[in-house]
Amino acid sequence: MKRAGLNEEQLVRRVAKGDRAAFEEFYRRTSPWLVVRLRRRCADEQIVADVLQETYLAVWRAAASFAGAAAGGSAVGWVWTIAARRLVDAFRRRAHHAAPPAVALLDPVAPAAEEEAIAAHPGGDVGDALAALAPELRAVLQAMVLDGLSVRETAVLLGVPEGTVKTRARRARAAMREALA
């Protein structure tokens, strides 16, 4: 069967049935994007490579657990959730054995997909308000709201205490409310 005509959700369903070619196609389509997102959050190329490998191993093993669009999810969002959690786990392992990981600066060459989506969303006021936030506040909102991470996972990801994450989230939400009022 030709896999080029299948969308990512259909590919994941085929992966769940053990279709190696569907897995390879899913990897080919999603890994470049995933690497960019991981590099935005971690400057250590070895951690990025390890997380990428762990993520796609998890995709292969857990494809049957993907609920799909019927449950309100997308395959791309599902793979990002896996990767974000693997990245947090990698940071925890590293913090346990050494100094905190080097987190990539939030000054990317190109805007992240979520930033483009928010800015392009009808009601670009949300994108404008998000862009006006201080980088440390925006990073907390991106991790917690857009990436769906918990306070603890966000703290590990950003290398700050949980209390700082809570404070920044409260300040970011207040600034967003004020900007959108």
TrEMBL record:
Keyword tags: Membrane, Sigma factor, Transcription, Transcription regulation, Transmembrane, Transmembrane helix
Gene3D superfamilies: 1.10.1740.10, Winged helix-like DNA-binding domain superfamily/Winged helix DNA-binding domain
Keyword Membrane found: yes
One Gene Ontology term from the biological process aspect of the record: DNA-templated transcription initiation
One annotated GO molecular function: DNA binding
InterPro entries hit by this protein: RNA_pol_sigma-70-like (IPR039425), RNA_pol_sigma-70_dom (IPR014284), RNA_pol_sigma70_r2 (IPR007627), RNA_pol_sigma70_r4_t2 (IPR013249), RNA_pol_sigma_r2 (IPR013325), RNA_pol_sigma_r3/r4-like (IPR013324), WH-like_DNA-bd_sf (IPR036388)
Bilayer-crossing regions: 62-84
Segment forming the signal sequence: none
Domain RNA polymerase sigma factor 70 region 4 type: 126-176
Pfam families, per the entry: Sigma70_r2, Sigma70_r4_2
Domain RNA polymerase sigma-70 region: 26-95
NCBIfam families recorded: sigma70-ECF
Family to which this protein belongs: Belongs to the sigma-70 factor family. ECF subfamily.
Protein name per the record: RNA polymerase sigma24 factor
Organism: Virgisporangium aliadipatigenens
